[in-house]
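Q: My labmate handed me this sequence with no annotations at all. I'd like to see what the chain might look like in three dimensions before we decide whether it's worth expressing. Could you predict it?
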Amino acid sequence: MATSTIDHARPLSDLHFVAFDTETTGLVASTERVIELSGVRFSFDGEIDRFESLIDPQQTIPPDSIRMHGIQDADVKGQPLFADAVGGFLDLIEDSVVLAHNAAFDVGFLAHEAHRSARKMPRVPVVDTVEISRALRDDLPNHKLETISKALNCPAPTYHRALADSVTLMNVFLGLVGGMADRPLHELFALTSGVLTFGPDERLWMWLPPELGPLEEALVSGGRVNLLYEPEGRRSETHEVTPRGWIRRTGATFLVARCERDHTDRNFRLDWITRAQYAQATLF
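A: Here is what I predict for the chain of 284 residues:
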């Protein structure tokens, strides 16, 4: 699919948007899978079209994830694989501005799924509505979808199912930017730290300094690394870990890794990791 050619000077009222959401087996895009994908295409005049599909992840859904969204193994067994299901979603988002809440999470999952299945994804702009909410509603205690929708009195059928959250996101977006209908698209982009795409993008894939390079290689090979970890205001620590993936949260990125000492998964804040060496190397 081609790169988006949407004119950034066009007014928002002249554009189509797609609010989308995923449900997944877990939090780490490099190892977990998408199990539900949906989107709602709309303009400032209202809904135009929608897409919804369960997806067979070909792996077991953990109990903690089931408690979040209620989707069980029996629900996805025999459903389309990602490579087959995503076609309808790609048709939906063509020539649109795509919206997601905590966009790096959902974009990261779709990009990893596309990589696994050799599906080419379009370089359409994907805007993070969390950042839009922060820019326009600094009076809110937080910027969770539920908090914003209640503050704006937006209809919200439920939470933590992909289609319901997509519909809620459409209503939230219109509630947030309704007064900007005549403003150009680039002013919407200016409310964010930058626009993501589903295609290769420097904000999607980790680019690490040389001293942390072993993390990326171990993530691919399944090997172990020794970390020098220096949390702010605390004593430095060393950990032998098996990297599993990355999680982006507000203000920071975390390495998710299995700690060989504790035999459990832990999150290590990336900017507190000052050195990484292969486990067989001499400790720092």
